[in-house]
Amino acid sequence: MSIVLSPGDVKLRDGRSVDFANLDIAATAPCLRVVADAVAELLPFYGSVHRGAGALSERCTREYEQARETVADLLGCGAGDTVVFTRNTTDAFNLLARALPAGTTVVTFDTEHHANLLPWADVVRLPAPRSAEEAVASLTRCLYNTGKSTLVSVTAASNVTGELWPVARLAAVAHRFGARIAVDAAQLAPHAPVSLAELGADYVAFSGHKIYAPFGAGVLVGRADWLDAAEPYLAGGGASANVAADGTVRWATGPARHEAGTPNLLGAVALATALRALHDADTHEQALVNRLRAGLAGLPHVEELRLFGPEAPRVGIVSFAVAGEDPGELAVRLGRDHGIGVRTGLFCAHPLTRRLLAEAATRLGAVDVPTQAVRASLGLGTTAEHVDRLLAALDR
Ligand code: PMP
């Protein structure tokens, strides 16, 4: 039995039934069984977190704060760090953007997901580097000029190419110049343990729904001082410690300051359960992604999108351009005729994906640059048969 919940068999246009090959795990991962069980166990005890003195409320408050502790433990939080539950990664970056001390410049690369490209007010976008060395050199040059009041914000793993970024090296550069670094771990967390210390990160953000938990909860983890000093992200109950008759508000301290409104208990518990389970899971993912990339390399009409060299370490995400095919129609045929779910588009990273599509079209000798890429992403529940089915379908 698979460790994730799956929709089971799907009926193809020719009448056959096949096990659905979900190769769009990078968008939203299926739910782990242990996560579904943890949520189901809690449902009868559903009560409001941090509100009310009844047994239900007490239990729910305890479970919510335990989920926070689990995240803190697994990421290696220290005394000066905090864990704020958010809606998702996008929400986490927007919160951090609102908590920056006045005068902070954000430095990022123009290859980022929109979640880490758009929230910032004062931002420098460095051009796409072609190697880890180039990324490090480009950041060093930039920080030499921008100075101390800087937050560097980079992805740990690209949602377009699956390539890993040299985060620890970029963090060392940031710290050398007195800057802080935030890491978008949305695509790293599903594939590898996330550790603040190993990444050298001051802040890390990721989403529950990408680490095999249901939708609705994410986290911002990292240094508490900026968050404690900032205006609450949302004004309302929970974020306020006291509201006087004249309307004067004393805001709460700690993570509650940025978690106004009734907390998402199930989301937090699901996220923490998934994070713990992933620590122990053996994904066989590297073998599967190698199999997929080797297969794609053998198809003359398919060209993988990549920013760094072909050998760059990566997670289980591969995007590609297909010569002479409308990606949207291709995706429909893959679903209808082969029971395969892939993603097409520009993957909320428009500047990066457009650039890589243009390069792939040149390598393919194609006259027209495709307007969309196709992305296959692997993870728990993916089998070698799913990968081979995609390769055989593309070969046809
Ligand atoms: N960063 C990366 C690298 C992502 O892949 C995604 C999701 N596509 C996000 C951020 C945003 O995640 P969410 O939609 O859960 O906020």
TrEMBL record:
Keywords: Pyridoxal phosphate. Pfam families: Aminotran_5. SUPFAM superfamilies: PLP-dependent transferases. Gene3D superfamilies: Aspartate Aminotransferase, domain 1 (3.90.1150.10), Type I PLP-dependent aspartate aminotransferase-like (Major domain) (3.40.640.10). Its cofactor is pyridoxal 5'-phosphate. Residues 22-390 form the Aminotransferase class V domain. This is Cysteine desulfurase. It comes from Dactylosporangium sucinum. The lineage of its organism: Bacteria, Bacillati, Actinomycetota, Actinomycetes, Micromonosporales.
